[in-house]
Amino acid sequence: MPFKQEEIVNYLKRYGFIFANSEIYGGLANAWDYGPLGILLKRNIKSLWWKEFVTKNPEAVGLDSSILNNNAVWKASGHLSNFSDPLIDCKHCHNRFRADKLIEEQVKNASISENTPFNELERIIKEHNIKCPVCGNVDWTSIRKFNLMFKTHQGVLEDDSNVIYLRPETAQGIFINFLNIQRSLRLKLPFAVGQIGKSFRNEITPGNFIFRTREFEQMELEYFVNPKDADKVFEDELTKIKSFLLDTITLNKKNVNFKEHSKKELSHYSKRTIDIQYNFPHGWSELWGIANRTDFDLQSHIKQSKANLWYLDPTNNEKIVPYVIEPSVGVERLLYAIVNDKYEIEKLKDNDSREVLHLSYELAPYKVGVLPLTNKLNKQSKKIFNLLVNEGIEATYDASGSIGKRYRRQDAIGTPYCITYDFDSIDKKTITIRERDSMKQKRIKIDKLIEFFNKK
How far apart are CA 133 and CA 105, in angstroms? Predict the structure, then answer.
């Protein structure tokens, strides 16, 4: 059953996944803190992405670039001059909006893109008599640019000479290190550089929970390829994304859509772009993107820095400025999609029900919940817990409340297995293992426990 955004938000807060930032002071708009279970789920998502897209790919390496960069990086990339949204104000209630989003929300099949001129956006708003979503009036200012870069200062003095920016994307850190990476590891085309890191955008209209926030984390791969191989690498990476979402993460196929950008919708640097969309509680929105960025980025940095960011083909001594294929996904958006997809209130017999988060073993914050039947068995049960964690198996220990309620709590946070230590465990050296989705139970020998979980 589909859930409303408010229901998902309440569920995630109740079980310690995500909290509103600065809540005791009234909060900070669209800022969120990840609780004890949220950080574990986030970590597992990142680890799984890294394993599938970097570790398993012999052509891929990793990078952790700085959040702060020389301002020339952002001048070359176009972020200082072009990284902006069309801002429009309601003169009546003084609320601010993105003009393109207003049109998309109120005009069906609106043919606009990030390249649509402001005068065309204003024409559409006037022609369709678009109303302010807050007060209902039609009284707009002219559209103006709003730069999304987060500005700060470096050094002692807070003046224009010391202005510096928080990165709005992780990709540029990879591009400016292209030569360092290629030469230090003697890499040949094609090769990929993966990075997971924070980015910052001063969004006009953040919202829809963690879907669009001003501080977020990206998982990006920049694949440097010979231009003649770009189409093949694009298709190969698209296939990997499909497999990751539908086979590894096992999202419901009905909730995933692949949208090809028309020529009019393409970004200025892109030759081809596909948005992988997910049906979030607020509707269909971009989850993942893959783009053929051509040689735009490297050429821009060559022009700005005068550095030789080209590749010398050893087979024919040809100098190549590689094309870049970029699959990019936000950690928070993927987490939101996973929870929305896997959360269920399951109806049981006798008008009973339970909350279940059907996470895979790899994604689950805890793989095992260790539950003593009574507090009299705490000492022996904790030995089982220590046995598991010493083997690197993520486990949680819960001795509070009835065994039935503890099962329900572990189901709700996505723990695939529960181990119950009872009085028979003392003499028979066995424990009960309960499986989350089926709720089936079986007894196994304690000395076979690690072998059981290693198979998972």
Answer: 10
